Amino acid sequence: MAAGYAELLRTRHAARLLTGTLVGRLPNATGHIAIVLFTRAEGGSYSLAGVLAAVYGLATAAGQPLLGRAVDLYGQPRVMLPAAVLSGLGMALLAVVGIDPLPAAYAAVLVAGVCTPPLEGGLRALWPSVLKREDRVHTAYALDAVAQEVMFTVGPLLVTLLVAAWSEAAALLVINAVGVLGALSVVVSGPSRAWRSAPREAHWLGALRSPGLLALLGSLFFVGLALGSITVAALAYAEGHGGDTVYGVVMAALGFGALAGGIAYGARQWAGPPERRLVALVALLALGYLPLALAPGVAGMTALSALSGLFLAPVLACAFVVVDRHAPRGTVTEAFSWVVTTFGVGAAVGTAAAGPAVERGGDPAGFAVAGVSGLVALLVLLATRRVLAVPGRTRAVGQAAENDRNGAVEPGFRAGRQA
């Protein structure tokens, strides 16, 4: 199992790009927590802290596909490094000015969110040119999904350590300075500087003109919704079963399951169309979420949480392959950025939906939101399986796809213009 990952990481530039991307994304993984802690330290209410964190999250969701499209048009270094610097400056402004005057605080988190560089989509666009082989690219997608789980586990811990050692403002400054260094490490690398997107057709919808991509995003929205609802439901469950420690155990079990599933998925080669495999994986993910509504004792809940996370990383890894096959020619970074946006918005909606469910039916009702969301994600894929069955990369007849090696033929379009 480890041999495939070791071979991948020994490939020139691979370890550097993966590490630099994860470090560069650290501000995004910890931004909402750092903002909440800083706002509370400045004397702001929980409501204000939540609103500022929400503004940051929504701004990030809006900025990712826009910056992703800019990367496809102008290259990675010319977009990602300035964006990372501006995002860091936005957080620095918040750390220096504080929450008074309030409009300045809102402007700071808005800039920090909108300018968050699309490093995640950029890395996935680079993998084919760095790794050369399709089986390695699929393994890299799985490793990417696993690494995300590590980052979203370690990141919040790092914030709390920085707060304990210095202050909330220092945590904001350090995390974002480190993020800029991570982005810098990526964009000065040879693959990033050499990468160019394929020529794209002029269309205001960009990547969203692909029916297959829209179908996938629709399904991933509900996967994100399920995860967001679990976050709230697990907190409500912990309050009745032992407090913060139980919450940490349950969420750690969820992350451990995702880690184990992602490592196992990426360690083998898979035959057949990834679209068909994705349907099976989402079905297993939904089945894993449904038993959470039983809300058993702590030991049982920990086991169910690990089981529910088992297929999350495989779903994401397989979805990355499907995105690569369906993104219109010249829009691969934008397409991957739309995945980030859709998932983030889904998680935010899930967080909002689980609150009323918990208030009316307790934590089992909150977990039920996750189960239902998983089933809806599956239904979306089943309803759109004909659209997903044929990759829809927009390119001239007979021309090789940008990242897709399946060589599927599709109608040609007028070439030479970009949008």
Automatic annotation (TrEMBL):
Main localization of the protein described in the UniProt heading: membrane
Keyword Transmembrane helix: yes
Keyword Transcription part of the UniProt annotation: no
UniProt superkingdom: Bacteria
Entry membrane topology: Multi-pass membrane protein
Localization per Swiss-Prot or TrEMBL: Cell membrane
Gene3D superfamilies in the record: MFS general substrate transporter like domains
InterPro entries, sorted: MFS, MFS_dom, MFS_trans_sf
Region entry Disordered, spans: 400-419
Keywords, ordered alphabetically: Membrane, Transmembrane, Transmembrane helix
Segments forming domain Major facilitator superfamily (MFS) profile: 212-419
PROSITE patterns in the cross-refs: MFS
Transmembrane stretches, start-end: 46-67, 79-99, 139-163, 169-191, 212-234, 246-266, 278-298, 304-323, 335-358, 364-383
Protein name: MFS transporter
